[in-house]
Design a protein that fits this description.
The complex is a heterodimer of chains A (284) and B (340).
Chain A: H1 6-45, H2 48-52, H3 66-96, H4 100-114, H5 118-130, H6 139-162, H7 167-175, H8 180-191, H9 193-208, H10 212-215, H11 235-243, H12 248-275
Helix pairs in contact in A: 1-12, 3-6, 3-9, 3-11, 4-6, 5-6, 6-9, 7-8, 9-12, 11-12
Chain B: H1 11-24, H2 34-51, H3 53-68, H4 70-76, H5 79-82, E1 86-87, E2 92-93, H6 96-127, H7 130-145, H8 148-175, H9 190-214, H10 218-226, H11 231-260, H12 263-268, H13 286-293, H14 300-332
Antiparallel strand pairs in B: 1-2
Helix pairs in contact in B: 3-14, 4-14, 6-9, 6-11, 7-9, 9-11, 10-11, 11-14, 13-14
The chains are: A mainly alpha (284), B mainly alpha (340).
């Protein structure tokens, strides 16, 4: 004997599965659409000149984004120099040392920093380095802003992966009379190195697409930056400039630039998933 | 065990060091050399200094924004927040229209994104077949990885023309009796900005909600199954009601992201600072106004007003984020991972 509302309950169960499935599909749709349009519009616009030439002035067809692509990598290099040491060592402190109260506050502060809008970072570094002309709009200021944004990201992921290292590893090393700092550097960090690298790469992928903070720091440049104290071009900046322009040829280039940037970011994101097909996979 | 060597360190160092003593005992056997002890201390302080960078950064952000907006604060005081004139030509600045645009576009984003993301999180943790979960999760994480400027460019060139041609006329036809959906539309508008924002915050709300749902104890579910509940009833009664607070935290976290999002919004919102009831009309947000006008600003007061917009934005996002973090931390302890 089934209860009178049995069928209704079964029906509702199926109905909710269908509805939530539809929502999941809806969530994935924009990704597919963005990818489709980028491939359709961008692929036809990518050619050799795009990677080797400088942007052309308005009205001239052609040109490329060589300087912007190089600029993005230079900025990422600077950002890594600032963000990785500070972030990794801070993460070591969170995982290996410290009272739980202080660590709670550090963690809390890092999470809050992760939520600070990227445009805010831009005007802060503008006020810090650009306005007082130390050194003004420059590759240096652009690298600093991206580096600062990386610190809390790297710190938190480093802490997470270090805590996955079994306590027994530390105890065994300490029991052999090895100093704690050498235990950390040679045993703990080495064990978790893959995870730390993953965290760093994901942070780099994240800041690689940042536009807002670069507008007031790196500023953009239509030519090559010869020194770090000069304004420098970056892929996201160039995409933004071309995206809002009314010229077809520039918008065509924006599609190509967007495709290159997206491929770069997704390559890192998918790459680290293959890199970490072990126990660190679940956490990152 | 005496550690007279500590005496040469400043007092505060000594104090903190003492507290750690019992923790260090295990490591410091008789065999530990003096260099080992020095290395230990140096390394610990090095890492502590790096960890303190987060506090330095927060102080730096607060200081720079406060000192940058000093001039505008002096000139306008609290009126800055309630005045609705944003008029760079006459050097008069009021933030109300951009605060309005920020709040409205974020609310639209939440209205669209929350049901979809929570349903997706439920599907992923409770209802989906196992083989489908991992690919879907990966797709959602990749969606989160798309740079904001690319999504904005896609929105401007693909989504906005489509909305203008298909969805908006349909909405005007069915919901046109509401002032929200009246008036001409030219394409870029607050509604389009809300939709782009929704796409951007869906991955965050989904993945945080998923973590929350996963942390619901299995016993909860088993108890409901034992009472003869269907899969959906288990989800509703045992899982969702248990996870309510955490999901609320996830939503607030998404709100924080929406409020501060810049590039995508700048490209699709139209950038006119105004307060109008129609969602089809262009608007501006705190972040988009800064992005648009900062490099073109002339005069100290103009800069200062833009800095103050940044300060308001920081204040709002800080409050929202702190609230979200506290909700999530009290729900799941420190194990919920930070959202990037």
């Amino acid at each position: 004997m089934t209860a009178p509302n049995h069928n209704w309950r079964q029906f509702k169960d199926v109905l909710m599965r269908v509805i939530t499935f539809a929502c999941a599909i809806l969530v994935v749709t924009p990704l597919v659409l963005v990818f489709y349009h980028l491939l359709k519009e961008g692929f036809t616009s990518i050619n050799w000149a795009f990677f080797t030439q400088l942007p052309k002035p308005v009205g001239e067809i052609g040109g490329g984004m060589a300087n912007a692509i190089a600029g993005t990598f230079i900025l990422l290099g600077e950002a890594a120099l600032i963000g990785v040491p500070i972030g990794v060592l801070g993460g070591v402190y969170l995982s290996e040392y410290g009272g739980s109260k202080l660590n709670w506050w550090i963690r809390f502060a890092a999470d809050i920093l992760n939520g600070v809008p990227s445009i805010t970072w831009g005007i802060v570094v503008y006020g810090l380095l650009v306005a007082p002309h130390l050194p003004g709009f420059s590759a240096l200021a652009g690298g600093v802003v991206l580096g600062l944004m990386m610190i809390p990201l790297v710190m938190r992921t480093t802490e997470e992966v270090l805590q996955l290292v079994p306590a027994g590893y530390r105890e065994a090393s300490l029991a052999l009379g090895i100093a704690k700092w050498r235990t950390i550097v040679q045993i703990v960090i080495r064990t978790a190195l893959k995870g730390i690298v993953t965290g760093v790469l994901l942070a780099l992928a994240r800041v690689a697409g940042e536009t807002a903070p670069l507008m007031f720091t790196a500023f953009g440049n239509l030519g090559w930056a010869r020194k770090l104290t000069e304004p420098i071009a970056a892929l996201p900046l160039q995409i933004f400039e071309y995206a809002k322009s009314p010229y077809d040829d520039w918008r065509r280039q924006a599609w190509a630039g967007a495709l290159v940037l997206l491929l770069l970011v997704l390559a890192i994101n998918i790459g680290v998933r293959f890199l970490t097909r072990d126990r660190f996979k679940a956490k990152i | 065990m005496s550690r007279t060597k500590s005496a040469f360190l400043p007092l505060f160092v000594l104090l903190i060091f003492r507290r750690e003593k019992k923790f260090d005992c295990m490591a410091t056997t008789k065999m530990t050399t003096a260099t080992g002890q020095f290395g230990d201390r140096a390394f610990k302080w090095l890492t502590l200094a790096m960890a303190f960078a987060v506090f330095v950064l927060i102080a730096l952000i607060g200081y720079e924004l406060a000192s940058g907006s000093h001039l505008a604060m002096q000139k306008f005081g609290w009126r800055f927040l309630i005045s609705s004139d944003w008029d760079p030509v006459n050097d008069i600045y009021g933030a109300l229209p951009v605060i309005f645009g920020t709040v409205v576009s974020s609310l639209i984003a939440l209205i669209i994104a929350v049901p979809i993301s929570v349903a997706t999180a439920v599907y992923l943790t409770e209802l989906a077949p196992l083989w489908l979960r991992q690919p879907l999760i990966m797709f959602i994480e990749l969606l989160a990885a798309i740079p904001s400027v690319i999504l904005g460019f896609w929105g401007l060139s693909v989504m906005v023309p489509w909305l203008h041609a298909h969805l908006f006329p349909a909405m005007r036809g069915t919901l046109g009796f509401l002032p929200l959906f009246k008036g001409p539309d030219y394409g870029p508008c607050i509604l389009a900005a809300g939709m782009i924002l929704a796409i951007m915050i869906v991955p965050i709300i989904t993945s945080v909600s998923r973590e929350i749902l996963r942390s619901v104890p299995g016993l909860q579910r088993e108890a409901a199954y034992a009472l003869g509940a269907t899969r959906w009833e288990v989800t509703r009664i045992a899982v969702l009601s248990y996870a309510k607070k955490g999901i609320f935290g996830a939503v607030i976290l998404g709100l924080g992201r929406a409020l501060g999002e810049t590039m995508a919004v700048t490209l699709v919102i139209g950038n006119i600072a105004q307060i109008v009831p129609s969602l089809f009309s262009p608007g501006a947000t705190l972040a988009s106004t800064i992005a648009n006008e900062f490099t073109e600003a002339t005069g100290d007061l103009y800069y200062s007003a833009l800095f103050e917009l940044g300060l308001v934005l920081l204040g709002v996002t800080l409050v929202v984020n702190i609230f979200a973090q506290l909700l999530l931390k009290t729900f799941a302890g420190p194990s919920v991972k930070p959202q990037n």
